[in-house]
Every structure is written in C-alpha cells, then in structure tokens.
Amino acid sequence: MADVKLNRIGLELQPYRGGKTTLCAGCGHNAISERLIEAFFEMGIDPRGVIKLSGIGCSSKSPAYFLGAAHGFNSVHGRMPSVGTGATLANRTLMAIGVSGDGDTGAIGIGQFVHLMRRNVPIVYIIEDNGCYGLTKGQFSPTADVGSKLKNGVVNDLPPIDTCALAIELGASFVARSFSGDKKQLSAILKASLSHRGTSMIDVISPCVTFNDHEGSTKSYAYAKDHDEPLGEVSFVPYFEEIAIDYEPGTTTEVQMHDGSRLYLKKVADDYDPTDKLAALRLLHETARRGEFATGIIYIEPDKDDFTTMLNLVDEPLATLPLEAVRPGPEVLDEIMESLR
Ligand SMILES: Cc1ncc(C[n+]2csc(CCOP(=O)(O)OP(=O)(O)O)c2C)c(N)n1
Ligand code: SF4
Ligand SMILES: [Mg+2]
Fold first, then answer.
1. Is the Cβ–Cβ distance between 164 and 203 less than 8 Å?
2. Strand partners, 73
C-alpha cells in the first residue's frame, strides 16, 4: 500500500476535503477551495476546531467543498458577519473562516461587513470576487468596474466599492487581495491569514466562467492576468518551521505574526510599507485609477487587539461556562443595584 501523507498533527488530507463541487467547471471559486484545503492541511490545523460560515451565492456554497470535518453554518444572504461574530464570541477556541461573494458582501451585506471590520472580529473573511451575482445569472454587483460590460452588452456606469480600501479604513488588521489563478501567492496569503489574530479580509478576484468571463469584462481571467500588479513576492514561514530566508537588507519587509510565524514581503518598484495605512489606501487609489489591481498583503497590523480581547472575554468559551457562572442569581443583582444608589 502506498504511504499516506500525514500532516504535522498526524491527519490525512481526507478530513480537509469536502463534498464534490456542484459549481461550474473552471469557476474561480473551486480553485480557492483547493487552496484552502492545502493551506489548512499544511498548517496542521485540526478541522474539528474550525467553523466555516457563509451567506448566499455560488461563493457561499463553497464551504461545502472544503474541510468536511469542520463545523459549518450557511446563513442568510449578507448575514454571515453577525452569525460569525456570535460564533466567535460564544466559542473563542474555534477558528472562524467566512466565505462570501462580492454581492453577498458589497450589496445586501454591506452593513454587516462594515461592523465586522470595525470590530476586528477574529475571522478569516474571504470575498470570492467575480464582479457579478453568479448564482442569479450574472447581474452586476457593487464591485463591478465602471465601463465593464455584461454579456448582453450592458455597460456598468456605477463606481465600484473597493472592499480592501473599505476594510482598511474601518479597522481590519490584515487586508489582502489576490487572484484565484495565482496559486503561489494565494497559498502564502491564506496561510498567513490563518496565523493572524483579528480580521483577515481577503478579496480574491475569482472569475465567473459562465457569466462574466468575456471580452469587455474587467473580472475575466484574461483581464485579471493582464492587470494584476503584485506588490512583490509573499513568503510565509510558520512558527513550527525553521527556515532562514536570505534577502538583501532594504529589499524585504519582515512581519512577525503573533503566533511566532514570520511573513516576508519582497518589495517591488518602490518602498511599500504594508503597515502604513495611508500608503495602503494611496496604493489602492492609484492602481485603480490606472485600471490595475494591486495584489499581495496590502495592509497588516499584527498586534492590534481583536474583538475578544477588547471585550475582555474569559478564557473558557462562553458556550461551556457552567450555569452558576452565567446566571449569578438575584443577590448579585441586588448588590449591583445597591452599589448604584
Ligand atoms: C434576501 C435575498 N435577496 C436576494 C437573493 C437572490 N440572490 C441569491 S445569490 C445573490 C447574489 C450572489 O452574488 P455573490 O454574492 O457575488 O455570489 P456569486 O454567486 O457571484 O459567487 C442574490 C441576489 C436571495 N437569495 N436572498
Ligand atoms: S455561475 Fe459563475 S460563479 Fe456560479 S458556479 Fe458558475 S462560474 Fe462559478
Ligand atoms: Mg459574485
């Protein structure tokens, strides 16, 4: 019998896989599921300690196709952030991963998205961004660019929402953009996001091959390939690996993650500092003005307190606290009332 490959916690790949995909062959969302399977397996994260969350859309169906052994909650359209916030507060030991679409996040769910970002809730929040409502046959979504064309020739004349700029502005502490066709970059970003404490917001350009992959679309494979401006190479070294990265001083930014992992961001043209909020926003505006999109880790604030820390939650999950601890009884209420006199 051939040797089965086990990861560092002794698990096979199988519990990291999910059901067979029902999405269209070639859909960018399938490639993202593949990268997630690899990232969780290689990071040695036990899927039984993970909760997958989503809203509604083709993208929101994809948690069914990875990490079959994890917990899952496929919520209502645009409502995944509040369900995710509740889950992470009720059980802070769970690792939360949310998958949404550009419609699910940018349209019906924008209010919920905004509050998730400003709270820095500990969750990896992925937007599978195809610039359209794939599940309902390809109408423009709020991330569609001005001038982008539908298959039937209709041109979008509304300005797009840049979810990365919004997330940075609002307080997310790890913000990245990638492309479903860039295996290496997406893998490194996903692994780094799994080491981050706080909100990791990752917008992944993920072409809809059925409704938005034609000429004139700015979310097609061809357009994404030609207009992707990587910020430089992203290398991630998890805390359990001892790899020395050789680099010329001044060419690479090293970021220490809170679990001891290290992130190396190789600079391209000019000195880009991913910890500088204003520089990150400027970069997003400048690239968008040129019709390009920057990919890589755009902003990172590794030491920012996450929502559970801000709330000073007890270590034991609220969900398993004994009744005496969560229902202190009338005498405690009387005492509080007395102290307020
Ligand atoms: C309350 C509500 N309104 C509208 C819909 C119809 N609907 C289903 S999916 C969807 C948009 C999905 O787009 P997106 O989030 O970008 O996901 P994609 O299918 O493109 O991956 C809409 C409008 C719905 N299911 N529920
Ligand atoms: S309709 Fe588009 S987004 Fe939905 S599964 Fe097919 S290719 Fe993917
Ligand atoms: Mg979409």
1. yes
2. 53
Q: List CB-based neighbours of ion ligand 3 within 5 Å.
A: 101-103, 130, 134
pTM: 0.96
Q: What are phi and psi of 190, to 5 degrees?
A: -65, -45
Cα–Cα dist 39/49, whole Å: 15
d(CA 251, ligand 3 centre) in Å = 36
What's the pLDDT score for residue 269?
A: 58
In this prediction, residue 326 carries a pLDDT of: 86
Our answer on whether the CB atom of 191 is closer than 6 Å to any ligand 2 atom is: no
Phi, psi of 197 (to 5 degrees): -105, 120
Give yes or no for residue 56 CB within 6 A of ligand 1.
yes
Q: How far is the CA of 214 from the centre of ligand 3 (A)?
A: 15
**133 within ligand 1 shell (Cβ under 6 A):** yes
Show the low-confidence residues of the chain (pLDDT under 70): 1-2, 268-270
Cα–Cα distance measured from residue 8 to residue 14, given in angstroms and rounded to the nearest whole number: 14
Ligand 2 contacts CB of residue 21 (under 6 A): no
CA distances from 112 to 76, 92, 181 (A): 12, 20, 29
Helix 277-289 and helix 163-170, axial crossing angle in degrees, nearest 10: 160
